[in-house]
Amino acid sequence: MSFIAACVQSTATPDVHADIRVLTGFIRAAAGKGARFVATPEYCAGLDTQGGKMFPVAFTEAEHPVLPAMQGLAKELKLWLLVGSIGVKAPDGRIFNRSFMIAPSGAIAARYDKIHLFDIDLGAGRVYHESATIAAGHNAVIAPCVDGMIGLSICYDIRFPHLYRAYAQDGAELLAVPAAFTRVTGEAHWHVLQRARAIENGAYVISPGQCGTLSGGAECYGHSLIVDPWGRVLADGGSEPGFVLAEIDLAQVAETRRRIPSLQHDKPYAAACLATPKAS
């Protein structure tokens, strides 16, 4: 019930094939260190940014060059591989921000489309409008992963704790949060959010992130994290490309949830609105 997991940290470019080569090198290196599960960042291959909008290089799923490359690699190295996300063409002309869990057989075990889109005004001209180019998903997904089950999410989803609560209560022992977090929000919130989701749910959180400056000038925070169910940071990728490793012990999930059984203590309640007292 224990295995080595790895987060790849990279800086995507508009050149999908160059990014595939970078990812392949890091994944091979992580597998050489014993990793049985490797996760890559959001938009891990093929990304441009312009004026606060994401412009991933997108293909139909059947034609996307990332998938056969990563499927072949997973099969060759006999590991579980989470493609954090790539751009997949949607029927309405926009793009799905889609994760793929690939099994050691090379088969696609699960797909997840990012549900919550990053439409944010951070001030000082830093405006992000993801929904201008990206189509939102609607389905939460739990996927197999080595000896456990992992709840899939992407980046901005981390700010919606009910998603992860549902995953944990449905049996997920791990939570995946591949991201391209901005430098500004990352410095303020990244570590706190990852540790909070781990603690709240007694789960491992595995969060590979993009780092550095993307084409178009957007800055990503990096600091890919692996956090244990007690909220301890087991690995932090810092600010440069590379990968980090940590041991995952699923027995710790069960033990943490036994010690603090909050997943069993959720109570139904009715929302109440307190009226403002009238001035006398």
Describe the structure.
The radius of gyration is 19 Å and the shape is globular. The protein has five helices and 20 strands. It has 280 residues and is α/β, with parallel strands linked by helices. The longest helix has 19 residues, at 183-201. The chain has a single domain, classed as 4-Layer Sandwich (Nitrilase/N-carbamoyl-D-aminoacid amidohydrolase), CATH 3.60.110.10.
Gist?
The chain has a single domain, classed as Carbon-nitrogen hydrolase (Nitrilase/N-carbamoyl-D-aminoacid amidohydrolase, 4-Layer Sandwich), CATH 3.60.110.10. The protein is built from five helices and 20 strands.
Question: What share of residues is helical?
Answer: 10-25%
Order of helices and strands: EHEEEEHEEEEEEEEHEHEEEEEEH
How many individual domains? Answer: 1
Task: Briefly note the CATH topology name.
Answer: Nitrilase/N-carbamoyl-D-aminoacid amidohydrolase
Q: Which regions are unreliable across 5 or more consecutive residues at pLDDT < 50?
A: none
Distance between the termini: 65 Å
General shape: globular
Largest sheet: 8 strands, mixed
Mean pLDDT: 94
**Main CATH class:** Alpha Beta
Count the E strands: 20
In CATH terms, what is the architecture? 4-Layer Sandwich
CA gyration radius, whole angstroms: 19 Å
Under CATH, the homologous superfamily reads: Carbon-nitrogen hydrolase
Supply the helix-strand structural class: alpha/beta
Give the percentage of residues in beta strands: 25-35%
